[in-house]
């Protein structure tokens, strides 16, 4: 009997949590309110209509309409919403909340482009903009969209927002169905922000008795900073950080990184876009270092993408590779990914590559013309016999014989060991090298290689960082064919050139040919240093021809 009572109590509790919509007569009276307090009450009630889409939407839309009537939408421009009075700022908050609720009805490919909502004698007809044009992001391309203000402030050093009209979301984007596109999109799809804007048509555009019309548009705040509400220009609300945090907070970064180092045959390399490709923007590719993962770039991307001067000028991409691969092999895989990227997208603008640590070496090997230099230095007396023996598709030839990429305009090296790192020669590191494995794509090619070359122990990435690796001798001979810059750490000691970042000494990371060299008070993780990010900003402004 007691168990039955508890069940009844639980059932009554659940029923009380789902408000039954009021009778049409009462609802109609509620929907006739005109004050902002009445709009707040409508939104509060709409939250409880969890099983009644029509009633919830009509309450939300009526609240939005009341707020709209309290805004200045007749013309002119609002440069800063802080200049608005409390009433209009209140109205914008109501409009944002209503937009968050209405957006749910249009997210996903199975939703209609236009939908009517009717309840208690009040009707609306809402259009969702699906045009794929610059700055517009159709809501149909989303799987879901979490209101940005509900995302927990964690993971990133800074949280970048912009006050304005509209509802910023942390969206989950649908992956395109085209398999050629999927190659360049991670399983989590894009990390692009979106802001939904609900815009009411003027009453005069509707015939008497017809539903009030409005449009719902998703905007890309990295491209658009102002929108029209009626005839008045308002700043667009934005949250640049929430999408990064929402889509990456649960990535097991360390687990993936260590797997890629010790068992590099488990996960393959991948170049992926963080936003839909835009031919008008300059691509920026970020390449991580040893025992790392692309999520390490979150603060760099977060700060640069939100910068007002850089906004809309660049689009960011990442390259993941298992860092246990041999350095030259990883560089070859990056070359192949970049070739496929260029063949698919035909970008109008040349790319900037930013590489950290070993990722800088991979980047550098995209913009040199080695001829047979690397081949001869690596193979020694076996160079000529193997050159004539191995066919053009053999892995060794693909790794050592290549042309520079003509689609790269500039490179930035952060803590890059251009001449290796002595840590790779330490006894502890030598023991660690013994547990590393190589993928079968590498080991299957070894059958054609003389045993004395394999025994040198240079095949793993860690061993390859030894200054004794002939690769560094080759790189020192080969000019870097694009403008390049260095960002280095000195652990805050300020004693360069006698110091280094704790992993890479200054004598290895310094390049005489660099257009600029910035030393920041940081260890090997200098990419996260605020001064380093400011230097990246300066270089990207320079690259885009924007005055700083």
SSE blueprint and pairings:
Elements: H1 2-17, H2 24-30, H3 36-46, H4 53-69, H5 86-103, E1 114-119, E2 122-128, E3 142-147, E4 161-162, E5 167-173, H6 179-182, E6 194-200, E7 212-219, E8 226-229, E9 232-235, E10 238-239, H7 242-248, H8 253-262, E11 270-273, E12 282-287, H9 298-306, E13 314-320, H10 327-345, E14 351-356, H11 358-364, H12 373-379, H13 383-389, H14 395-400, E15 408-414, H15 427-433, H16 440-443, H17 451-454, H18 461-464, H19 470-477, E16 484-489, H20 506-509, E17 516-520, H21 530-544
Parallel strand pairs: 2-7, 12-13, 12-14, 14-15, 15-16, 16-17
Antiparallel strand pairs: 1-2, 3-5, 4-10, 5-6, 6-7, 8-9, 11-13
List keywords for this structure.
548 residues; alpha/beta; Rossmann fold; 2 domains; 7-stranded mixed beta sheet; 6-stranded mixed beta sheet; 21 helices; elongated
Structure, described:
With 548 residues, this protein is of the alpha/beta class. It has two domains: 222 residues, no CATH class; 291 residues, Rossmann fold (3-Layer(aba) Sandwich). Helices cover 35% and strands 17% of the residues. It has 21 helices and 17 strands. The termini are far apart.
Biggest pleated sheet:
7 strands, mixed
Helix content bin: 25-40%
Tally the helices: what do you get? 21
The level-1 CATH class of the largest domain: Alpha Beta
Strand order of the largest sheet: 11-13-12-14-15-16-17
Using only C-alpha atoms, the radius of gyration works out to: 29 Å
| CATH fold name of the largest domain | Rossmann fold
How would you name the oligomeric state of the polypeptide chains in this document? single chain
Number of domain modules: 2
* Through-space gap between termini: 76 Å
Tally of extended strands?
17
* Percent of residues in beta strands: 15-25%
């Amino acid at each position: 009997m007691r168990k039955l009572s508890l069940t009844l109590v639980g059932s009554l509790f659940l029923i009380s949590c789902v408000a039954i919509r009021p009778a049409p007569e009462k609802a109609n009276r509620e929907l006739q309110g005109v004050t902002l307090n009445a709009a707040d009450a409508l939104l509060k009630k709409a939250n409880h209509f969890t099983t009644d889409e029509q009633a919830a939407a009509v309450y939300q839309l009526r609240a939005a309409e009341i707020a709209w009537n309290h805004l200045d939408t007749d013309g002119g421009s609002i440069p800063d919403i802080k200049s608005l009075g409390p009433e209009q700022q209140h109205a914008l908050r109501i409009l944002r909340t209503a937009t968050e609720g209405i957006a749910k009805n249009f997210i996903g490919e199975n939703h209609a482009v236009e939908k009517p909502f009717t309840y208690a004698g009040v009707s609306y007809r809402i259009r969702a903009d699906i045009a794929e044009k610059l700055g517009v992001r159709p809501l149909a391309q989303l799987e879901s969209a979490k209101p940005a203000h509900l995302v927990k402030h964690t993971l990133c050093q800074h949280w970048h927002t912009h006050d304005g009209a509209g509802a910023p979301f942390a969206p989950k984007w649908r992956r395109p169905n085209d398999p050629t596109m999927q190659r360049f999109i991670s399983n989590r799809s894009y990390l692009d922000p979106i802001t939904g804007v609900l815009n009411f048509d003027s009453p005069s555009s509707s015939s008497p008795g017809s539903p009030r019309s409005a449009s719902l548009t998703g905007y890309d705040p990295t491209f658009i900073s102002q929108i029209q509400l009626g005839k008045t220009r308002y700043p667009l609300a934005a949250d640049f950080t929430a999408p990064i945090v929402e889509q990456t907070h649960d990535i097991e970064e360390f687990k993936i990184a260590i797997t890629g180092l010790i068992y590099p045959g488990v996960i393959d390399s991948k170049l992926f876009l963080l936003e839909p490709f835009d031919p008008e923007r300059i691509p920026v590719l970020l390449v991580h270092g040893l025992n790392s993962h692309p999520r390490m770039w979150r603060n760099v991307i977060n700060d640069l993408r939100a910068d007002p001067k850089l906004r809309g000028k660049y689009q960011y991409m990442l390259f993941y590779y298992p860092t246990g691969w041999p350095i030259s092999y990883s560089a070859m895989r990056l070359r192949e990914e970049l070739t496929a990227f260029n063949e698919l997208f035909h970008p109008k603008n040349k790319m900037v590559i930013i590489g950290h640590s070993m990722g800088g070496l991979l980047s550098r090997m995209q913009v040199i013309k080695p001829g047979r230099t690397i081949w001869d230095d690596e193979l020694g007396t076996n160079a000529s016999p193997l050159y004539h023996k191995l066919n053009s598709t053999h892995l060794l030839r693909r790794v050592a014989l290549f042309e520079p990429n003509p689609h790269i305009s500039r490179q930035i090296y952060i803590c890059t060991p251009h001449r290796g790192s002595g840590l790779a020669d330490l006894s502890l590191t030598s023991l660690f090298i013994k547990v590393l494995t190589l993928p079968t794509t590498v080991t299957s090619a070894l059958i054609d290689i003389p045993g004395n070359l394999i025994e040198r122990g240079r095949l793993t990435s860690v061993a390859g960082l030894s200054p004794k690796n002939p690769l560094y001798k080759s790189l020192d001979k080969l000019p870097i064919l694009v403008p390049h810059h260095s960002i280095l750490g000195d652990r805050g000691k300020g004693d360069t050139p006698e110091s280094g970042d704790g992993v890479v000494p200054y004598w290895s990371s310094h390049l005489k040919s660099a257009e600029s060299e910035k030393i920041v008070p940081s260890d090997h993780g200098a990419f996260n240093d605020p001064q380093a990010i400011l230097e990246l900003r300066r270089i990207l402004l320079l690259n885009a021809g924007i005055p700083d």
